[in-house]
Hints:
Blueprint: E1 2-4, E2 12-14, E3 29-31, E4 42-44, H1 58-61, H2 64-94, H3 108-140, H4 147-175, H5 185-196, H6 206-214
Antiparallel strand pairs: 1-4, 2-3
Helix pairs in contact: 2-3, 2-4, 2-5, 3-4, 4-5, 4-6
Amino acid sequence: MIGAHMPSKDCEVIDTWHTLGMQSTDSGDVAANDVFVPSHLVYPLAPEFQANDHFSGPLFQYAAIGASIASLIAPVALAVARNAIQELKALAEKKVPFGSMSSLSMKGSVQRKIGIAEALVQSSRIYLYQTIEDTWKKVKSGEKLKISEKADLLLASTHANQSCFQAVDLMYSAAGTSGIYTKNKMANYFADAQVIRQHGFANDSRYETAAQVYLGLPPDLPVVAF
């Protein structure tokens, strides 16, 4: 696996990011046709990148999974889920559903969904942050992370992402018809969660990737080894 740096002027950014949610990230495609890349801008990623002295700091020794997935993708999922819960709580205090004499906040089904959502978000957040802290301490002490510890980061990130999607889905269903209107923030949180859950580095299949490492098998996501 070879990495290459190319000047942006030599590449074409293709406007393909027309999505259900997360629209402001603008993650379009990039095409590079007949671009010459000199040898000093090419570097091997696999089987192993041989770092020089410029990469001696702990941040460069940390796992790619920890620096990118655990620290970038999962926190976004956590924020979306937290916002969805707060939005539902505010709605529950004032909304009286059609055919009902009491607000959403008084309904046991809504209370149950809020409780489950809180448990999903809080537990996955603690699991994620604890895993990041444990692995970061090891790297700062000079230890080299094992692939199983890198898989721990992947699993914690995946679990946070998928748990947060479940939490948002619960809040969306609890909101009833209020959540289907685009003017309602809940509709945006629901759409965003649908996109985040599909991210290639933290979607449902990454549970399998982590398990492959734990079973001593080669992971189907090679970057987990970096």
